[in-house]
């Protein structure tokens, strides 16, 4: 206990003793000791009740009266309570100021922020940017259901996915179709979700410009390359034997450039697509065609296997899937030394989908390179890729094609032992084969 309080407490006890002693003396003089003591005790109790009443009145009054001066226990109690109250008020003020500052930050954000109540899907609050980007108006839209209010954005279906809702990467703003938005749903508490919309118009435009540029450059290069290639083919090395190695190298390089341009054009075409054809892809003929390519590219240097263990077909684009699979096949041949084994496996997966895997016993890929291997022009060994006629775009094409089919690429590889590139398709992309073709061919 602080000394100040201790002293006040002692003083109050001494006062009580003094009052009772005084009353006893007066009572003795009047011959009524007990009566005098009782009256004094009642007086003390009454005084304390009055002090308690006074304290309660002060604590409950709205006006901030400073505590009375004095050094008795009641004044000390009053002072302590007053200090507690003042501290609490100051803390409340600080919290309110902080809350206002956070609100001001959220309100000033360039991204639209909308707080939505999870169960009722009603709008609780939104910032200024939500007005310009999403067309929400304060206070008209507070309390309104978010789905119909943000029409034509497909927000209701999105909310149905809950925590698994994927971000919507490029959608038109309900205010103006020229404004492109990226929408994200962030569950930040049990009951409240945050819908964040970012203006990505400039980014989308830049991305489009980049795509157009690559597509146009590739397209423009095609014609001169065809001409150069044509003339090179016409030159007869027999006429100038000393030029033969140079001619051969020029032909090789012009072929590589042609392939590079073709791959760039394929990538541009894939990037420009949001969805893919929904035709039935006959996997029996696809595997037969891959087998022919494998045989032709390998030219007897490898042991080849095609294992067709699922009597199913795929739904998607035959052309694009063929281009993806043949890239994997060509990689397997190019990165497997003679004497190795290459297997194409088509089989059902335990999840109900199917997978097409190309396995080889080739050089393999060091684990550190695996996360980046599907990036454009990313190569483990540039010289080996060039020697083998690679463009560095094969796996990027595979990844794009699979993405358009909502499929994923799984890569397993060990240096010196070989690699396995497996394309996993979900059950929605699988159809049973009409004329079942099942079995293993070696
Ligand atoms: P590239 O035209 O160079 O082959 P890709 O995009 O097809 O380009 O492949 C990227 C890189 O991945 C290759 O340069 C090679 O290093 C590695 N790679 C791809 N497939 C295989 C494979 N089957 N075995 C070993 N390495 C591979």
From TrEMBL:
Boundaries of every Histidine kinase domain copy: 216-429
This protein's name: Phosphate regulon sensor protein PhoR
E.C. number: 2.7.13.3
GO biological process, one term: phosphate ion transport
Transmembrane segments: 12-30
InterPro entries noted in UniProt: BphY/WalK/GraS-like, HATPase_C_sf, HATPase_dom, His_kinase_dom, HisK_dim/P_dom, HisK_dim/P_sf, PAS, PAS-like_dom_sf
Keywords: ATP-binding, Cell membrane, Kinase, Membrane, Nucleotide-binding, Phosphate transport, Phosphoprotein, Transferase, Transmembrane, Transmembrane helix, Transport, Two-component regulatory system
Keyword Ribosomal protein: no
Taxonomic superkingdom: Bacteria
Protein's cellular compartments: Cell membrane
One cellular component (GO) term of this entry: plasma membrane
CDD domains for this protein: HisKA
């Amino acid at each position: 206990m602080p000394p100040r309080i201790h002293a006040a407490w002692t003083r109050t006890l001494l006062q009580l003793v003094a009052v009772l002693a005084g009353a006893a003396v007066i009572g003795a003089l009047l011959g009524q000791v007990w009566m005098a003591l009782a009256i004094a005790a009642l007086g003390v109790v009454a005084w304390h009740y009055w002090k308690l009443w006074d304290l309660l009145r002060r604590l409950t009054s709205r006006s901030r009266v400073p505590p009375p001066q004095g050094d008795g226990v009641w004044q000390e109690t009053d002072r302590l309570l007053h200090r507690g109250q003042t501290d609490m008020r100051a803390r409340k003020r600080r919290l309110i100021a902080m809350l206002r500052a956070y609100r001001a930050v959220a309100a000033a954000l360039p991204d639209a922020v909308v707080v939505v109540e999870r169960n009722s899907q009603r709008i609780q609050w939104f910032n200024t940017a939500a007005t310009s980007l999403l067309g929400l108006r304060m206070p008209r839209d507070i309390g309104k259901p978010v789905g119909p209010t943000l029409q034509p954005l497909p927000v209701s279906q999105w909310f149905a996915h809950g925590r698994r809702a994927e971000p919507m990467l490029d959608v038109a703003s309900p205010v103006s179709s020229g404004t492109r938005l990226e929408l994200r749903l962030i569950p930040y508490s049990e009951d409240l979700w945050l819908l964040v919309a970012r203006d990505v118009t400039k980014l989308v435009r830049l991305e489009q410009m980049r795509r157009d540029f690559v597509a146009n450059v590739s397209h423009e290069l095609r014609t001169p390359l065809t001409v150069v290639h044509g003339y090179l083919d016409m030159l007869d090395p027999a006429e100038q034997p000393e030029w033969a190695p140079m001619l051969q190298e020029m032909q090789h390089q012009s072929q590589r450039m042609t392939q590079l341009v073709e791959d760039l054009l394929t990538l541009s075409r894939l990037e420009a697509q949001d969805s893919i054809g929904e035709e039935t892809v006959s996997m029996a003929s696809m595997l037969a065609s891959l087998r022919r390519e494998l045989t032709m590219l390998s030219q007897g240097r490898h042991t080849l296997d095609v294992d067709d263990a699922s009597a199913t077909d795929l739904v998607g684009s035959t052309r694009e899937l063929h281009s993806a699979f043949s890239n994997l096949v060509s990689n397997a041949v190019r990165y497997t030394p003679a004497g190795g084994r290459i297997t194409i496996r088509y089989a059902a997966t335990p999840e109900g989908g199917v997978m097409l895997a190309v396995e080889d016993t080739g050089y393999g890929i060091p684990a550190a390179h695996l996360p980046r291997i599907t990036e454009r022009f990313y190569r483990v060994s540039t010289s080996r890729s060039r020697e083998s006629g690679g463009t560095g775009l094969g796996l990027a094409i595979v990844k794009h094609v699979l993405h358009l089919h909502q499929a994923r690429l799984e890569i397993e590889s060990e240096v010196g032992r070989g690699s396995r590139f497996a394309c996993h398709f979900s059950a929605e992309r699988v159809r049973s084969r009409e004329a079942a073709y099942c079995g293993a061919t070696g």
